[in-house]
Amino acid sequence: MPLPFRYFLLHKPHGVLSQFVSPYPQRLLGDLGFAFPEGTHALGRLDLESEGLLLLTTDKRMTKLLFQGAVPHPRVYHVEVKGVPDEADLERLRTGVPFLIEGGRTFTSAPCTVEAVPGPPHYFPSPYKYNPYVPTSWLKISLTEGRFHQVRKMVRVVGHPCIRLLRTSISGLELGDLQPGAVRELDAETFFGGLGIPVPD
């Protein structure tokens, strides 16, 4: 009898690749000290410098269900940027900004939700060294698409480069107070329910 599928939430720390194998000498998911079962893979990814919620599972059906389904799954990011964006900057981000993607092509982001916020719901120690003479501020950005480095490219276009990027939720699954490097296992009903996907047979 095959083993039941397993589902995990991970708070991916800064400086860890969102994968288990790599030809490069980087910290990987398997280096975090959690005994993930064989066949575990990440659903999507966060780049090396980004932090926050990463979903993992042994269920190979999930990639198609999550990324190719008819219902989009909003992803919320708390983004610390240089300077203080004004309302015009926020409106540009909300309506869509152009940036370069692979192959040198120009891509325009879809309309999204953007607001200035005091910071993420739970604050975690920063891996960055800050220049006390450069002001920073936080934005909360909710997207239903995810091009490579999209959030970083979007805020750079409006003149406020990203300093820190933390993904705090995917649909109804939230990072909460899960600490960097920590893992929380969910049962299938909670995992699928949080994503708004019926549990497959």
Automatic annotation (TrEMBL):
<feature type="domain" description="Pseudouridine synthase RsuA/RluA-like">
    <location>
        <begin position="7"/>
        <end position="155"/>
    </location>
</feature>
<dbReference type="GO" id="GO:0001522">
    <property type="term" value="P:pseudouridine synthesis"/>
</dbReference>
<dbReference type="InterPro" id="IPR042092">
    <property type="entry name" value="PsdUridine_s_RsuA/RluB/E/F_cat"/>
</dbReference>
<dbReference type="InterPro" id="IPR020103">
    <property type="entry name" value="PsdUridine_synth_cat_dom_sf"/>
</dbReference>
<comment type="similarity">
    <text>Belongs to the pseudouridine synthase RsuA family.</text>
</comment>
<dbReference type="GO" id="GO:0003723">
    <property type="term" value="F:RNA binding"/>
</dbReference>
<dbReference type="InterPro" id="IPR018496">
    <property type="entry name" value="PsdUridine_synth_RsuA/RluB_CS"/>
</dbReference>
<dbReference type="InterPro" id="IPR050343">
    <property type="entry name" value="RsuA_PseudoU_synthase"/>
</dbReference>
<dbReference type="Pfam" id="PF00849">
    <property type="entry name" value="PseudoU_synth_2"/>
</dbReference>
<dbReference type="GO" id="GO:0009982">
    <property type="term" value="F:pseudouridine synthase activity"/>
</dbReference>
<dbReference type="InterPro" id="IPR006145">
    <property type="entry name" value="PsdUridine_synth_RsuA/RluA"/>
</dbReference>
<dbReference type="GO" id="GO:0006364">
    <property type="term" value="P:rRNA processing"/>
</dbReference>
<dbReference type="GO" id="GO:0140098">
    <property type="term" value="F:catalytic activity, acting on RNA"/>
</dbReference>
<dbReference type="InterPro" id="IPR020094">
    <property type="entry name" value="TruA/RsuA/RluB/E/F_N"/>
</dbReference>
<keyword id="KW-0413">Isomerase</keyword>
<dbReference type="InterPro" id="IPR000748">
    <property type="entry name" value="PsdUridine_synth_RsuA/RluB/E/F"/>
</dbReference>
<protein>
    <recommendedName>
        <fullName>Pseudouridine synthase</fullName>
        <ecNumber>5.4.99.-</ecNumber>
    </recommendedName>
</protein>
